[in-house]
Amino acid sequence: MADLSGGLEPVAVGLWPPGEAPPAFQYSPDNVAGPDGDIDPTEISFPGCSCLTSSCMVHTCSCLRLGENYNSLCLRPTGEEEEYTRPVFECNAMCQCGESCQNRVVQRGLQLRLEKK
Question: Is the pTM of this model over 0.85?
Answer without folding.
Answer: no
